[in-house]
Amino acid sequence: MKDMLVHLYNLDFADKMPSKDVRIVRVLSPNSDKVIAFVEAHFSKGWAAEVKAAVYRSQPTCFVALHENKIVGFAAYDATAKGYFGPIGVDQTLRGKNIGKALILHTLEAMYHDGYGYAIIGGAGDNVFEFYRKTVQAYDIEKPGNVYDRLIRG
Predict the structure, then answer these.
(1) Can you count the helices (H) and strands (E) in the chain?
(2) Which domains does the chain have, with CATH numbers?
(3) N or C end: fewer C-beta atoms under 10 angstroms in the chain?
(4) How far is the C-alpha of 37 from the C-alpha of 138, rounded, in Å?
């Protein structure tokens, strides 16, 4: 897994709505349990812990995609470390409908408005490099190590 970098000043945030029946909203703290439960059920406990850090802020740094008033995706920033984007995930049954693209653009736009010039995508797996390259022109950081090297494993 490698880190990637996104230059926020050159992104076009205009194309960030996947369809009329999906909305992207910033999480409100009363909905935090629902979001954390969704992430844990569809992804992992580790990602749920990261999302917990993002939703328990006074100004949450987590967005969700809603379809028929149900959570179908999420994206967070500043969850594990300042300036880091992620994690992000979309329900498997709704992938390919630009929901991930909408989530990443909403989240990166929020980072931009929070004063960030760049976003780090930490520990990106090989299976998502192309998504990040195509969607937000992310590029690899060619240095070894990342923030996740500090994880306690086992």
Answers:
(1) 4, 7
(2) 2-146 (3.40.630.30)
(3) C
(4) 29
